[in-house]
Amino acid sequence: MLVKDLQSKKGWWEPFDRLLIATGALPFCPKVPGREAAGIFGLHSLESGITVRRVIDEERPGKAVIVGGGYIGLEMAEALTLRGLDVSLVDRAPQVMNTLDPDMGALVSEAMIQVGVKLYREEALEAFEVDGGRVKAVVTEKRTLPADIVILGLGVIPNTELAARAGIPLGVRGALRVNERMQTEIPGIWAAGDCAESFHLVSRRPVHIALGTIANKQGRVAGINLGGGYATFPGVVGTAVSKICKWEVARTGLQEHEIRTLGLEHVSATIESTTRATYYPDAGPITVKTLAEKGSGRLLGAQIVGIERAAKRIDIFATALHAGMTVQDMINLDLSYAPPFSHAWDPVHIAVRQADRAVRSAS
Predict the structure, then answer these.
(1) pLDDT tens string for the chain (363 positions)?
(2) Cα–Cα distance for residue pair 348/274, rounded to 1 Å
């Protein structure tokens, strides 16, 4: 392996018996005019977050434009709003948070508007206006938004350019193709984290999902194997949570468009409930959407939007997906109950009962 000291500029060949590639991911930015301007930031590491905070503290920007309505985009919209900035968010999709179905994403869009974020949906980024090397505005197909600082929330891409140049095979979205032991297709070379593929336990297809939870598990498996042990990483179900001010957002499994792509017939059921017993103080709204396979009733996915104590209920659905349960199986799960925490019938119970009813009605 040829390495280079970035300070001394000296290079040399470093031998290895086993190599682990853990190069992570890079923030994505389309190739539009002005994208190299100062004041445009992509967040993908602790250091990049510290840089943005320093710029805000020192330069006191007034107007922020966020491009992209994913997890990073929404969380930065909240953070900048709390810092007193005038925040606009541009997204080419009909609703923010495209890892949710549009009907659930609409709830998140409304939550963003409520906290003062200006949303510009179904508008694609076309260019950045630049003055003196610094970004001055974000240009979409419909308008020009003045900006003192721009945050890219368009997701990330696997950082695999070097590996590809070395001839290591890539898979979905340019991530490194690995087996369940995190081995690439080149003997002695392993990969883990945001640069590597995962296997989706519901779709039964390779996926690239850049989340710290997945990266940590993959890193553990790779480390055990590199150290002479034996471990496997069976796969993921795409579980993720986020928080935008008082609103919590969670999802797991497949979305409706993914289910249709697989050629599966499905039913969906959406319920509204409260996070605690209705009569208990501070009970708040929770909306749960459940997706199940038509006929078998196999759970395919779930999405949750609600206030405090809503999001972590997604872990029940995630566990059920790992176990291959049906929505009917889930009706009798022995979940905990006390008025400060839930109803006697938890919102999860209510959701899967409605989904089971939809399955039986469609049969």
Answers:
(1) 889 898 998 999 989 999 999 999 998 888 999 999 999 998 878 898 999 999 999 999 999 999 999 888 999 999 999 999 999 999 999 999 999 999 999 999 999 998 899 999 999 999 999 999 999 999 999 999 999 999 998 889 999 999 999 999 999 999 999 999 999 999 999 999 999 999 999 999 999 999 999 999 999 999 999 999 999 999 999 999 999 888 999 999 999 999 999 999 999 999 999 999 999 998 999 999 999 999 999 999 999 999 988 999 999 999 999 999 999 999 999 999 999 999 999 999 999 999 999 999 987
(2) 11
pTM: 0.92
Examine residue 185 and state whether it is found in any structural domain, yes or no: no
Number of domains in the chain: 2
Amino acid at 16: F
Last residue of a domain, one of 106, 133, 156: 156
Tokens of 328: 């009917």
Could you tell me if residue 207 is inside a domain? no
CATH value at residue 119? 3.50.50.60
H helices of 137-280, in order, are: 161-165, 212-226, 256-261
Does 8 reside within a domain? no
The 10 Å Cβ neighbour count of residue 296 is 15
Q: Which segments of the chain does DSSP mark as H helices, in order?
A: 46-59, 71-82, 102-114, 161-165, 212-226, 256-261, 314-323, 327-331, 347-362
- E-strand ranges in 217-343 read 240-244, 247-253, 266-274, 285-293, 299-306
Residue 51 sits at φ, ψ, to 5 deg, of: -60, -45
Determine the Cα–Cα distance for residues 97 and 104; give it in Å rounded to an integer. Answer: 9
> Considering 156, 186, 207, which residue would you say is the last residue of a domain?
156
Residue 117 domain boundaries? 25-156
The total of other beta-carbon atoms located within 10 Å of residue 181's CB is 15
Distance (Å, rounded) from C-alpha 187 to C-alpha 21? 13
Q: Which two tokens stand for residue 173?
A: 């979205």
333, part of any domain: yes
CATH number of 312's domain: 3.30.390.30
Helix, coil or strand: residue 199: strand
